[in-house]
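Supplementary Methods S3. Complex input for the (2S)-2-hydroxybutanedioic acid-bound model.
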Amino acid sequence: LALVVAACSEGSTGGSGEQKTDDKPIVIKFSHVTSIDSVKGKAAERFAELVAEKTGGKAKVEVYPSSQLYGDNDELDALVSGNVHMIAPSVTKMVKLDPRWQYVDMPFLFENQAHAQKFFESDVAKSLLNSDKLAGNDIMGLVFWENGFKHFTNNKHQLQKPEDFKGLKFRAQAGKVLEAQFNALGAGSATISFGETYAALQQGTVDGQENTYNNIDTQKYQEVQKYMTLSEHGRLDYAVFVNKPFWDKMPEDIRTQVGEALKEATELEWQLAADENAASLENIKKSGKVEVLELTDEERTAIAEALDPVYDEFGETITSELIDGIRNLK
Ligand code: LMR
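Predicted complex, serialized as structure tokens:
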């Protein structure tokens, strides 16, 4: 977690631009789209507690979960304009500013959780967090938060072979890579914000979606989906982004304490990602509402092969530096 520490010692160290702390606490508005009991929701709450403890109340994190302040369509703009100070979006939603963030959607790129975590601490990952493209929009990434592997759910039939996807329509988070993924399987897709996905599944606007066990469970998709395939075909992970002028203006001692709180919350978040996803899979199974299919190695390989064209189409956009950089961390 060297990234946080590095970012916290940067920025202005005083002067007239500094925020005042003598009377009122510095309020850090942190907006996100998942529920309060999700991996991200729990980590954000813990971060807020840690900030209060470490700054002795001089800074206060106000967490706005469940898209109640900003949803997928406006939280990034709100961060750029400084209406909110921190967000932790699923990284693919950063496609608006830098298409390389869709690395996360490249099919079967990550082997396991340890591989994803190795990436979070790598130089290629740092190059995304600190890119000129983000800085040019007054934002910067501080650290990666994890969720986990995605799995397909749908309402029509079990998805076991590439052909089974034909003609179905899936909800996608954002970007062209996910669209290409579904196209490669003969399926269609629609970009739908997280806050509107439950209703879209319930009303049949789409037949299915892909998400982590914990997002499926905390959004109660098991109520509106009949089949789940344990595919682990792609990842859903987060990064914590700040509005840079806001961050730079924070008095240095407070910024350092907030950085320490973030470092501790991040360690917890990574642990939560593993524990909560495992618990959510059990919940989904226990609900008895979803038929769960485990794939054999051969079945997974057949789906992976069907998704190979996504690399031909998007390898250059994502860059070989990232794709090979991630593969070499295995
Ligand atoms: C989604 O839109 O499915 C996820 O990005 C939601 C989230 O933040 O985990």
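The CA atoms of residues 47 and 262 lie 6 Å apart. DSSP finds 14 helices and eleven strands in the chain.
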